[in-house]
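Tokens in:
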């Protein structure tokens, strides 16, 4: 039987070619994503950077530490305290010390001659520095950097590559990477916490990759930022620890590799890999799902086409077990060859995938494939297992072929689905629907999680694909009703051919169902959630004007805040970003983003979705939480840790609706942990002139000279609305492109195989008087009709998923519409139609080059 299996593969190579290509591609994608996934399990050990040349570094502990029954739990603090002046003095007695101060500096270049000039920077360096410092991307020509005193540059160490060190106020040394245009002699407009000034670049240092820095003279840096953020001590580490311990704790003494904790964003490399890990894991899972579906569908169709062949084998004495073994053996042969090819493709494609992730901004610049080989082994045996498992179900149908069945069976598929397939389809659909209903009833927010909106469509797609032989019949008749009534026989023949070959129609429609359902579900869900979040921002903002800093992640000068409060007719609600942490169930520390606001003016400039309590009851002894908190009873007290690590007990004044998760926590400025104001919401008083208030605010902003922006409420809401980010869009397209490639190959393979086996039908049409163009047009119309059927079924699955998302949003109190990616979905359907038409027409055109009489007399 092994020789028979090998002979079957050789003689029916067209049938198995598509399975081979689809499986090899699937294994290659799994291997490539597996290798990339393995590279995300550990970040490279770069060692200390910011203080690599410093013997001992003293800084405040940046971790909140809470002792629980299960040990000490830690969370990062929103704000780290400075080194106390008394401790600085005590440590200076041990040896030479260098004070480090870190403060925001926003540069807007003016050039050598004082004319405004756009200032470039290395995108890679700027991106890493922005993430490390939390400053966000450059805004309106402003380049966010971090300021330090020049004396601390030797701790990295930085070395001058041109010019000299700063010797007077207004002089600066800057990091200059490969993409930066800053050079010695340039004059730049700089905004610091002390105000706006003009700096002259007197020297440059090489960019070290972890921050974009501006070094000023020590005295000028101390004037701008008096607090000492870190202290370099040239003394024995034990003596330093003794002094710090006597001072009362709360400070870290860092030596050796521990100095890395003082780097900007010390965990940024590991954190950057978390999203890459999730993305690649999702891509590998969807690729595996699509590969299994495609291979199973392909082998099922191949077995259905070979009923006469199996009937003849049974007549010749083959047992059902031998028939099944032959089908599985053929699949194993194809699986081994395709998996070996996929092994090679994956090993070759993994570096390209890593490079693409870096180029798209999904992975850090240093990301690369490691030396692990275990993903290749897993991919290989997964491919063999997928091929064998995909053929196993079809082999049972082949084994049930009776010896005389071939003699009485017509070419029309008149059989209904087996009971086992009905049961499996029902179980899968009930599981998918059950998960959705359970989430909507118990926790609507869970239905909006990434895992939920990715896995749930897969279950529904599988269930509907199993029912494809039943669904395609009515849909074919419904969708071809009008074409069948148009003049000519093309519509009628396309309808009857598609209706007669249900297995062929279902096999062609299945890849389209997967493609359309995945595309519309994933892109539609992400876009719908983005629109819902934007709706929340617009609804919650009632301010007429919003004042924000010139660059993201910066704060507004206290002097400017007071000037805004003094503007006549302006009701100014000043807010600060902070965070609060709560210990849930005695074991888990959960940190929530929070806003520190003025309770007396909050309701005048904002309308958060309150479900219990009153916002006006907020005071220094209370907190506003949302429904996600375990404690949501108004008046009850809850113990929290503020952004600076202080533990306080606050009374719940009000509870907000959960929404999409963006409704955070509100506290007062006293509980902000020392955070500066980053936004002022302004409502114009009834008797005031809106134009005059806006003009006064813009005058104050221009006088400050720091790039402060005054926006209307609508402008701010549009800018602040969290739309689909470029990285999210790139990640989705990476996932979908893998699935689309697999399903496209499956679609082409099924149609090529099906068209090749219909040469006698095409010959009969030619003998009845149809011309070659008419036959080819019929083949193309039939292929497009079947694609349309698959698109309708896939759209139905996507509609169910998007309806679930809309229902979850409605239950969470978010009134937002569903966003359907019509353009992308239409493009996918059009591409599938083109692939289907070409895959059907090309083999038909080759077959029709033979005389119709010879084709009609061909044996299978």
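Residues out:
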């Amino acid at each position: 039987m092994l020789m028979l299996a090998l002979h079957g593969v050789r003689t029916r190579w067209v049938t198995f070619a598509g399975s081979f290509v689809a499986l090899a591609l699937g294994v290659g994608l799994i291997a490539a994503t597996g290798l990339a996934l393995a590279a995300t399990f550990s970040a490279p050990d770069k060692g200390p950077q910011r203080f690599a040349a410093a013997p001992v570094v003293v800084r405040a502990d940046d971790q909140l530490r809470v002792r629980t029954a299960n040990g000490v739990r830690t969370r990062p603090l929103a704000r780290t305290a400075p080194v106390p002046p008394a401790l600085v003095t005590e440590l200076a007695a041990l040896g030479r010390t260098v004070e480090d101060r870190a403060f925001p500096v926003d540069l807007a270049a003016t050039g050598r001659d004082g004319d405004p000039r756009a200032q470039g920077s290395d995108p890679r360096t700027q991106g890493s520095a922005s993430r490390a410092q939390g400053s966000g991307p450059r805004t309106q020509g402003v380049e966010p950097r971090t300021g330090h005193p020049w004396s601390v540059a030797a701790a990295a160490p930085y070395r001058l590559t041109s010019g000299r060190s700063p010797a007077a106020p207004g002089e600066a040394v800057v990091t200059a990477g490969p993409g930066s245009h800053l050079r010695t002699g340039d004059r730049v407009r700089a905004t610091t916490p002390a105000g706006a000034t003009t700096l002259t670049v007197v020297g440059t240092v090489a960019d070290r990759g972890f921050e974009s820095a501006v070094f000023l003279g020590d005295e000028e840096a101390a004037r701008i930022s008096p607090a000492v953020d870190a202290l370099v001590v040239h003394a024995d580490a034990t003596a330093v620890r003794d002094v710090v311990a006597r001072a009362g704790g709360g400070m870290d003494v860092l030596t050796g590799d521990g100095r890395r904790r003082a780097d900007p964003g010390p965990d940024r490399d590991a954190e950057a890999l978390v999203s890459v890990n999730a993305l690649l894991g999702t891509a590998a899972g969807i690729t595996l799902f699509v590969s299994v579906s495609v291979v199973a569908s392909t082998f099922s169709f191949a077995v259905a086409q070979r009923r006469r062949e199996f009937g003849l084998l049974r007549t010749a004495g083959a047992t059902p077990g031998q028939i099944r073994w032959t089908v599985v053996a053929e699949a194993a042969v194809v699986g081994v060859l395709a998996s070996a090819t996929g092994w090679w493709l994956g090993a070759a494609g993994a570096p390209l995938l890593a490079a693409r992730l870096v180029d798209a901004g999904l992975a850090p610049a240093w990301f690369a494939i490691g030396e692990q080989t275990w993903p290749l082994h897993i991919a290989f045996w997964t491919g063999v297992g997928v091929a064998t498992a995909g053929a196993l179900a079809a082999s049972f149908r082949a084994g049930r072929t009776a010896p005389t069945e071939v003699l009485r069976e017509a070419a029309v598929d008149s059989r209904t689905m087996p009971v086992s397939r009905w049961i499996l389809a029902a179980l899968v659909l009930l599981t998918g629907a059950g998960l959705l209903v359970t989430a909507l009833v118990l926790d609507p927010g869970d239905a909006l999680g990434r895992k939920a909106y990715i896995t749930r469509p897969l279950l529904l797609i599988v269930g509907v694909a199993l029912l494809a032989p039943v669904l395609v019949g009515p849909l074919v008749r419904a969708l071809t009703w009008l074409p069948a009534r148009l003049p000519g026989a093309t519509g009628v023949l396309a309808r009857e051919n598609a209706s007669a070959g249900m297995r062929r129609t279902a096999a062609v429609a299945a890849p389209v169902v997967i493609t359309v359902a995945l595309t519309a579900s994933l892109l539609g869900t992400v876009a719908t959630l983005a629109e819902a979040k934007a709706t929340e921002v617009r609804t919650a903002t009632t301010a007429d004007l919003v004042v924000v800093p010139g660059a993201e992640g910066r704060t507004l000068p206290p002097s400017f805040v007071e000037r805004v409060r003094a503007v006549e007719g302006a009701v100014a609600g000043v807010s600060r970003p902070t965070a609060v942490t709560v210990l849930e169930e005695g074991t888990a520390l959960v940190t929530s983003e929070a806003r520190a606001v003025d309770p007396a003016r909050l309701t005048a400039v904002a309308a958060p979705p309150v479900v219990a309590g009153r916002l006006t009851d907020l005071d220094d002894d209370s907190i506003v939480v949302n429904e996600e908190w375990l404690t949501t009873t108004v008046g009850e007290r809850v113990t929290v840790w503020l952004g600076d690590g202080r533990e306080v007990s606050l009374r719940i004044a009000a509870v907000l609706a959960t929404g999409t998760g963006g409704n955070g926590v509100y506290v007062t400025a006293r509980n902000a942990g020392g955070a500066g104001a980053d936004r002022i919401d302004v409502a114009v008083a009834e008797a005031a002139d809106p134009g005059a208030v806006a003009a006064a605010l813009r005058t104050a902003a221009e006088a400050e000279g720091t790039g402060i922006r005054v926006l209307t409420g609508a402008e701010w809401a549009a800018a602040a609305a969290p739309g689909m980010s470029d990285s999210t869009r790139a990640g989705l397209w990476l996932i979908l492109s893998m699935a689309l490639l697999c399903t496209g190959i499956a679609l082409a393979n099924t149609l090529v195989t099906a068209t090749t086996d219909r040469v006698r039908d095409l010959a009969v049409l030619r003998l009845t008087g149809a011309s070659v163009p008419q036959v080819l047009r019929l083949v193309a119309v039939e292929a497009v009709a079947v694609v349309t059927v698959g698109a309708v079924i896939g759209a139905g699955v996507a509609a169910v998923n998007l309806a679930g998302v809309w229902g979850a949003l409605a239950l969470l109190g978010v009134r937002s519409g569903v966003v359907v990616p019509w353009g992308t979905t239409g493009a996918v359907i059009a591409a599938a139609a083109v692939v289907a038409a070409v895959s059907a027409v090309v083999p038909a055109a080759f077959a029709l080059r033979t005389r119709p009489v010879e084709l009609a007399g061909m044996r299978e």
